[in-house]
Design goal:
Elements (H helix, E strand, L loop, with lengths): L4 E10 L11 E9 L7 E7 L5 E7 L3 E7 L7 E6 L3 E6 L5 E5 L4 E4 L7 E3 L13 E6 L5 E7 L3 E7 L7 E5 L3 E6 L5 E5 L2 E5 L7 E2 L7 E6 L5 E5 L4 E4 L7 E4 L11 E6 L5 E5 L4 E4 L7 E3 L7 E8 L2 E6 L3 E6 L1
Length: 328
């Protein structure tokens, strides 16, 4: 199935009334690419292997999941796989081997660049965690793989393989986890409900950082020291110490002087970045996160994740089978 509609819009990026706001208005172009005008798939994460081949995962919570694939750089997309569980994350170890994961601990694996997918079965898992969704896949190297997930704010899960997926070790938390970033096989940081958590020994032990006040939904590092985080309660945060200390750039629920829910954040470079959330929230920074400007779009889509293509071009996955392309 290959369905593709491209619609061009013009928009004006209005200055917002918070933190060093500017009165400057910036004209930009963006596109909304619709895989199917009638689809109800919520696109969660997008990934390109090269300038031609890419994948999107998504689904309808509790009902179905899908993988879509492009071989022409996103000009058109084709249904690659249907499953009975929603998918939240996808990542590839190399050009051939990739994983997708989602609801009910589902893990799918391909050895042939999405030509076929097999349902990976954990050799062991605690039965009471069966319904927990996995939301992030991270490869530290060819052997070390981390899967991060959680639900209901009080169930967090980190699953680690040290041998390329043959065996997995399970760590449980009493707060939901949403994302991870590993700087090395030993040192990594986890974000979640009310906490940043650090491991310095390859997930043998964990240290909860003395910083809270939000549901930290995403973390993004520019280098080994400088990173940013977004919060479901609307906060934006920055570290210059590899996650050991954090500062508040935007207080929770003050970004737009109204209650907003942020889902993902990406920095294109040290100055330019973008954060997205529910109900059509898209905000940009051009000064390293000190101030943010709101992008006004007509459709109030829920925006779930950001993928930086190149040269300032980003793709945003959204509800209702939409992809928003922006040059910032």
């Amino acid at each position: 199935m290959r369905l593709h509609i491209k619609i061009w819009f013009q928009f004006i990026l209005f200055s917002a009334v918070f933190l060093s706001c500017s009165k400057e208005k910036i004209d930009l172009n963006y596109t909304v690419e619709i895989i199917s005008p009638s689809t109800e798939v919520n696109f969660q994460q997008l990934l390109f292997l090269n300038k031609h081949i890419g994948f999107i995962v998504g689904g309808q919570g509790g009902e179905s999941g899908s993988i879509y694939k492009t071989i022409d750089g996103g000009k058109s997309w084709e249904l690659n796989l249907n499953t009975d569980k929603s998918l939240y994350a996808i990542n590839f170890l190399n050009d051939s081997v990739g994983y997708a994961c989602g609801e009910n601990l589902i893990v799918l694996k391909t050895y042939d660049q999405g030509g076929s997918w097999e349902d990976y079965q954990f050799p062991y898992y605690p039965g009471y965690l069966y319904q927990v969704p996995l939301k992030k896949i991270e490869f530290v190297d060819e052997k070390i793989i981390y899967l991060t997930g959680g639900m209901y704010f009080d169930r967090g899960l980190l699953v680690k393989s040290s041998n390329g997926g043959t065996w997995w070790d399970w760590d449980f938390f009493d707060y939901e986890l949403s994302s991870s970033h590993f700087f090395s096989p030993d040192y990594g940081i986890l974000s979640g409900y009310g906490h940043f958590t650090v491991t310095r020994d390859g997930a043998d032990s964990f240290e909860v950082m003395d910083f809270n006040g939000d549901f930290f939904t995403a973390i993004y590092f520019l280098d080994e020291e400088v990173g940013f985080a977004s919060g479901y309660d609307g906060g934006i945060y920055k570290t210059t110490t590899a996650g050991n200390n954090w500062e508040v750039l935007i207080k929770s629920n003050s970004l737009l002087k109204q209650r907003v829910h942020l889902n993902d954040l990406c920095m294109v470079n040290s100055d330019k970045g973008i954060v997205v959330g529910n109900n059509g929230i898209i905000c940009m920074t051009y000064d390293g996160g000190n101030s943010w400007k709101k992008l006004n779009i007509e459709e109030k889509l829920d925006c779930y994740s950001i993928y930086h293509v190149e040269n300032g071009e980003v793709l945003i996955t959204c509800s209702e089978g939409r992809i928003i392309k922006i040059n910032i």
